[in-house]
Amino acid sequence: MGDKRRPAAKGKTPATIYDIARITGVNPSTVSRALNQPGRVSASTEQRIREAAADLGYRTNPMARALPTGKTGTLGLLVSDLTNPVYFDLVRGAERIAREHDTMLIFADSQESPELERSTAERLQIAVDGLLLVASRLEDAQIQELAAAKPIVAVNRPVPGVPSVAPDVQPGMVESLDLLHGLGHRRIAYLAGPEASWMNGMKWVTAHDLAVDRGMSIVEIQSSAPTREGGTEAFADVMAADVTAVLAYNDLIALGLIGACQQHGVAVPRDLSLIGFDDIFGADLSAPALSTVRCSWGDMGSRAVSKLLGAIEGDASGAELNLPTEFVSRASVAAPGR
């Protein structure tokens, strides 16, 4: 026999909770509780209702779901650049926890634009129960204003008074600077990311302080974008700085710089050592394989969704969560050869 649990035929009027109630012999309000608030009715009744819903091809309408509960069962996830592979693991981790809680994620991209991020966040807040702001380019006050309207968790940066999940860059960068110093590097550069990025500022301050503490000189070089192209375009400035090692804002910039070095006959790591940040997919596939500072983006995604779901339910505990980083040694670092 065929499986009766199939979606309604194309063109057929979608099933409603009233259809389910008629088949199961319970009130529509009982159907609503069984489908939207598990545990509010007996296990046998809930199972019977869910089986009937499956047979009818019933699909929950988030807007209708919001009427009795005040919640849509959806969360927004707004990232600074959806094309950045660093977010792959974050999205997967966030989706896993959302799915476990029968919650849907809506994704949006601000394209590194604070103005677009603000307008997109405001539009999302109308339709979701809470919002994840990933690598936000907004000012603290703007994020706090958004958080006053609906629960928000900031990812990859802390914001006073707003729950957040971010990497602790200190451990990984300490390992990086210790290695460079031990190999004999004394003149290094930090190849920066977006000026509006809080994390970019944190990485620069951390790298600067650690270098000075070790008697190393360090300069900041601005990239045009946090992409491979940004790293490629920074090649001339890096060469003009006369440094023996570069710490990059992220792996994409570092990989772009590796490519430019190859094009111009600069040997990595003999002539220039490079360290990235994030340990994205493919960082170990470059030639040479990229040494980097790893942070668990998948863990950040799952922790952020858990924190947001808690905030939606009124749990304000543990406002700021910092996850450790670690240095990953590969083939792009060696003793200076010049």
Automatic annotation (TrEMBL):
Pfam family name, one: Peripla_BP_3
Molecular-function annotations in GO: DNA-binding transcription factor activity; transcription cis-regulatory region binding
CDD domains assigned to the protein according to its UniProt record, in alphabetical order: HTH_LacI (cd01392), PBP1_LacI_sugar_binding-like (cd06267)
Claim: Transcription is one of the keywords in the record: yes
Gene3D superfamilies for the chain: 3.40.50.2300, lambda repressor-like DNA-binding domains
Ranges of residues in domain HTH lacI-type: 15-69
Chain segments annotated as transmembrane: none
Origin superkingdom: Bacteria
Phylogenetic classification of the source organism: Bacteria, Bacillati, Actinomycetota, Actinomycetes, Glycomycetales
Protein name, as recorded: LacI family DNA-binding transcriptional regulator
Keyword Transcription found: yes
Keyword entries, A-Z: DNA-binding, Transcription, Transcription regulation
